[in-house]
Amino acid sequence: MSTRWYPIYQRGNPQLRVFLPNFWMKMVRPHPKQLPNIVHFQCSMEMTKYDIKNYLEKIYNIPVVDVRTKITLGRFRKDYGQGYIVKDDDVKYAYIVLPKDMTFKFPEIFDSKKNDEEENMKSLDEAKKNFSDYLEKNKDRTDVPSWFSI
Amino acid sequence: MHLVKFHRNLPKFKFWTKRRYSHALLTDENEYTEAPEYPPILDMSLQGRKLRERQIVHEKIQKLNTVEEKQIALNMPRYYGWKCVMLNEDKIPYNALPLVKCYTRTHFIPSSSLPDVYSETASLADLVVKQTKSLIEDIIILESEAVKHNYVAEQEKPEEQQKEDMITKNIVKQINRIICNKLSDKASHILSSQADYEPRHEAFWFVGGLDVPHTVRNQRKKHKWLRDQLEEPIDRPVQYIGTPLLTLRSNLPLKPLLPYVEATNPDFKVPKFSFVPESVGYHTQHRHGTNIPGFWTGDCDEFGLLSYHGRGHISVRNPSFGLEDNVEALHSQALKASFGWLLGQANYQGFTTYNDITYPLVTQTIITNGKLWSFYVYQMNTIAMHNEQMDENPKHNICFGTKPLQLYDTIENGQVKGFNEEVLKMLVQLYLNAPEERDHEMKPFLGKEEQIIADIEDDEKRRWLESRYKHLVSNRPKHYLMPEIYLWERIYKIKHNTRFFEAKRRFFERDINPFKRRLDEHLPPYIPKVLRPYPRCRKKFENTYYPKV
């Protein structure tokens, strides 16, 4: 299903088109401490509870017991550089209840990235330490360029 | 002018600075003891001091004389009512049993028959079943098929549910009438008992040790002294509201199923359900906590025998929940209904959620739609489960319950097919469970002369307390609306300080939390000048008699 306006075909335009649906769901990390059989999603504003249930059951074969939805108010923030206040879009959240014997754990996708970050921080610290050593070593000849050394 | 005023006040100050003795106080000879006596060491941390404050309030509530004053005292800290987690009898979300077990602190024992205590009356029950069987069959046929119901459906509930509950209500009324008639000469407690149709059952208590909602966490983050206790568990006020189809009450309590020492048995430990209740499908509501077991104070029949509840809500439950969860929903309905009713009764005996009961109370609960019957027997051992007591209180409540049992298979050609006498026997056995006088004090926390406000001699105080109590538990909307932060204020005053030049007059600009307003923080009714006592009376406002807690 799609209500998007696509440009009228003109000769010479690419022939292949992808018709994206209006319906989308994005899994989000739940608040800390949630029952293991409840999964949180953000979804498109047009989706009803029935749509959400069908979407998960028909496309992904997930047994859905119950669906609860809520619409959260978007954040108000000062426009950067302008000073007036703008509002972000509202978000529709869907809380999916799975059968009570099923559990879902939000995957840790960025575990490796975290390790990388640690390594980066380590090398940064090292560079900082080298620099301070260099300053310490040359504190009595501040006007000498760095390349001029033994 | 000011100097004159000061001069007038000078003698008063002199009184405070006056030296009373010309020499040092005489030392008491008995001041010295053999062993040194030190004052107790108190915990002077923030939590320790707050805990002592709360304990003082609990003691003050315990010392209040009358039931109604205790109920007002429970509501004293909140002018706009507590933000209660609402437990409705007939709104049961998926997988409700763990939460209900924890909130009612109940160990549930599924069984196929009634506990052993009931076996004494088996022979008498058989006799009564034989006498009543044909009558009850007639009633079932009549009420299920022969009556055409004309009714106006309520908006709030599904029509199917209301229809089922209405038929059930008629069947239950008739069955109760038949059994009571047959038993009135055999069991004296049935003759003297009172039946209520669709009474108002409400119960209010605090459940502690629960996870912190993120709004509270965000509030705690704002204060430096609370940052190290972000995850400190909190108390949640809980309000149960239910309407049984029919209840029987008597002037004596039922016998305990198990001895009271069994309440501390670690086998009955209840697993904790600390998740935020809003995240599993419950909602909250600002309301005053009410404890009403279906009658007002002063009624002589203040102990429940049994209550019938409808199960129409099962038929309109989401089919994806499954049959197995429907049975659990029935169990959780029974736990809520039994605990709620007993808690109301316990409150009328002078106990509150802060002052634990000193003896067990028992009730019997039946959930039925005329065809399927489930029986529950509930023993309440404790009602204290607020923050300090949740982990330390060793006592637990116990409930025995059966699965839904079929009273009959079908109705064909005006005949009931496959009538199950065992089910009827169990029902009669519940009726035959005779209450008994207890040999301990029933109302240890109530006054000697004044136990309810009707006992108060002072006319003005009695009338005031009566009207205030009834108005409080009616939960009618306030005369003035609750204070509200409009969205434009939230955007342009709170989140972004764009109107800093305006005078700060609104409550949120003056650091006032309206939800922390106490119940007695209002002007009492004004006495017009013509009504004041002659000749000159400066008293402008009428007296209030709020309990001092």
TrEMBL record, chain A:
MF terms in GO: structural constituent of ribosome
Gene3D superfamilies in alphabetical order: 3.30.70.330
Organism per entry: Parnassius mnemosyne (clouded apollo)
Cellular localisation: Mitochondrion
Coarse class of the protein's main subcellular location: mitochondrion
Highest taxon, organism lineage: Eukaryota
One Pfam entry name: Ribosomal_L23
Alphabetical list of SUPFAM superfamilies matching this protein: Ribosomal proteins S24e, L23 and L15e
InterPro entries on file: Nucleotide-bd_a/b_plait_sf, Ribosomal_uL23-like, Ribosomal_uL23/eL15/eS24_sf
GO cellular component, one term: mitochondrial large ribosomal subunit
An example Gene Ontology biological process: mitochondrial translation
Quaternary organization: Component of the mitochondrial ribosome large subunit (39S) which comprises a 16S rRNA and about 50 distinct proteins.
Keywords: Mitochondrion, Ribonucleoprotein, Ribosomal protein
Protein name: Large ribosomal subunit protein uL23m
Keyword Manganese part of the UniProt annotation: no
Keyword Nucleotide-binding in annotation: no
Family: Belongs to the universal ribosomal protein uL23 family.
From TrEMBL, chain B:
GO molecular function list: structural constituent of ribosome
Entry's localization field: Mitochondrion
Main location: mitochondrion
GO cellular component: mitochondrial large ribosomal subunit
GO biological process, one term: translation
Record-linked Pfam families: PDCD9 (PF07147)
Sorted UniProt keywords: Mitochondrion, Ribonucleoprotein, Ribosomal protein
PANTHER family: LARGE RIBOSOMAL SUBUNIT PROTEIN ML65, MITOCHONDRIAL 28S RIBOSOMAL PROTEIN S30/P52 PRO-APOTOTIC PROTEIN
Protein name, as recorded: 28S ribosomal protein S30, mitochondrial
